[in-house]
Amino acid sequence: EKLYGVSRWGGGYFEIGENGNVQVTPVPADKSIRIDFKALIDEIREEGVQFPVVVRFHDVLRSQVASLNTSFRDTIAEAGYQGEYQGVYPIKVNQMREVVEEIVDAGEPFNYGLEAGSKAELVTALALNINENSLTILNGYKDDEFMRLALLGRKLGRKMVVVVEKYTELLLLVKIAKELNIDPIVGVRAKMTVKGRGKWEGSGGEKAKFGLTIAETIKTARYLQENGMGHCLKLLHFHIGSQLTDIRAVKEAISEGGRIYADLYKMGFELDYVDVGGGLGIDYDGSASTNDSSRNYNMQEYVADVVYGMKEVCDLEGVPHPTLVSESGRAITAHHSCVVTEIVGEIRSNSAEIDTAAASQEHVFVKNIRELEDDFEQQTNMQEVFNDASQYKEQALDAFKLRVLSLEELAKIETIYWRIMVRLKQWCATQDYVPEELQELDHSLASQYLCNFSVFQSAADTWAIDQLLPVVPLTRMNEKPEVNCTLVDITCDSDGKIDQFAVGREITDVLPMHKLNAGEHYHVGLFLTGAYQDVMGDMHNLFGRLNEVHIYSHDDDPQDFYIEEVVKGSSVQDVLNIMQYNPRAMAYDVKKLIDKQISAGNIMPREGVRWTDFYEDCLSGYTYLKTS
Ligand code: PLP
């Protein structure tokens, strides 16, 4: 637990059980419900679902929706805040139908709504968000059709709020609203001077891509008024970035946003809602700090700062407390899904050794490095040993290129070099102070565990923006992990790796894992992938979407769970179709080639049929490695 910090990033949902397996508590309030990951993996196997698999814990999703809403409700009551909370879930964070449907269903008692940022998301929200009391917030850039869809929502009696991101959108909205004679509900997104901290800080500040300046905001309000629609302006929106690492940014945004709301109100625009956007962060590395992958507050503190902050500004300004809206996506979805995959091999620089016994007439470089190894115990300056060994290896490579050293001699030098490095690493472990270069031995001697998945499909942000995601073995946690390793995926791309981990209280480039036992399935989990990662992946190397299992806990038996649904991942023909190939025609072409070989007598007819069937099976099969 100290090493992997499961309960620190687990948000009350994950911890290590006494049997060494990761356990899931899908409803933190009810600790009696526990799902053992080993049992889950066995069940997935029994169902015949191939790994890698996305596991969705629907109870976790429901729990997060309830937590956020009750947290706002309780804090509002405690603070004596006069307004309500009416949150919305931003579809873009995880657009999967099952995810959005579950959130809408769990949010029903709280009038929890949806946020859409594109036409496709708006079309989705129109069909799914059928609760007339909940909001549908429409952000993003909009065209004529977008506006008409929003107004269709109004006709259907729904609270569709068109948030104006740029001034020209307003002109379009007013024109279409007049033409259709439908009153829109209008929001304005303010460009904030306060910036978030962290990877997404560009969403705030004057150079932000979205939002209106203060002058544009006032112009918008007045334009609506001039067109007899002043009463339609109902919401002020701001969003200063996702994954806000420092709570101070939240406080500053609330006081700046609160002031804008108050002054608009005093100018005669009686807004009902203030929408504080997203940004509620997740503690990916378990450090509860302002690290990029963490945050120095929790959900409760965030909610308190929003509620009390807004109350303070409104009371000072003497304006009513508005209904509070937030657009938390990451906090709602991150914990609910994880990727479970298997380690399918190990790559080590020093994995192969050859016989290094002295041979007659061998090159002096081989002799030198052998002597260095033989005298290891007598050496007092280990930095010098490292320097000499490294120099011999480099010289040997040059000599090989100049055809002075044979391939066999080069292999001997490499073998001895790595043996010396292993001994140096053992020496380092006994020292209080280790020279800088020797510290890197941990990394250079680390194994690479080959994982059956694609970083580009399942953990895009680890590659794109160095986002840290927790990775842990799912079993054997009661055994000491003895192998330091990085994780590499099965794409043909050297960027397809994970080499940033939270280990103990530090961020390291290697992760301690267990030795692989022959014949054992060693599964690892990549956690907190429910926000963005689940849906942002690409098909690099034609690795497609993963098989998914949807898990619910059993009401009757706390130790039990059931796979409610299996959603098949992409087959090879699915991904080929997307890329404009015609798999049927391809199968036909390959069959013709096989037939030709049959006619030429190179393949027997029966064997030809087997090859044809095999090719077709591969087309309809999974894109990932098949493990036995
Ligand atoms: N609202 C808007 C306008 C956003 O751009 C985003 C994401 O950046 C969100 C909400 C969701 O933010 P988060 O996932 O941090 O809650």
UniProtKB/TrEMBL annotation:
Keywords: Decarboxylase, Lyase, Magnesium, Metal-binding, Polyamine biosynthesis, Pyridoxal phosphate, Spermidine biosynthesis. Its EC number is 4.1.1.19. PROSITE patterns: ODR_DC_2_1 (PS00878), ODR_DC_2_2 (PS00879). The modification N6-(pyridoxal phosphate)lysine is found at residue 92. Signal peptide: none annotated. Residues 84-334 form the Orn/DAP/Arg decarboxylase 2 N-terminal domain. It is an enzyme of class 4 (lyase). The active site is at 492 (proton donor). Residues 572-625 form the Arginine decarboxylase C-terminal helical domain. Transmembrane segments: none annotated. The keyword Lyase applies. One of its GO terms (molecular function) is metal ion binding. PANTHER family: ARGININE DECARBOXYLASE, BIOSYNTHETIC ARGININE DECARBOXYLASE. Belongs to the Orn/Lys/Arg decarboxylase class-II family. SpeA subfamily. This is Arginine decarboxylase. It comes from Salinimonas marina. The lineage of its organism: Bacteria, Pseudomonadati, Pseudomonadota, Gammaproteobacteria, Alteromonadales.
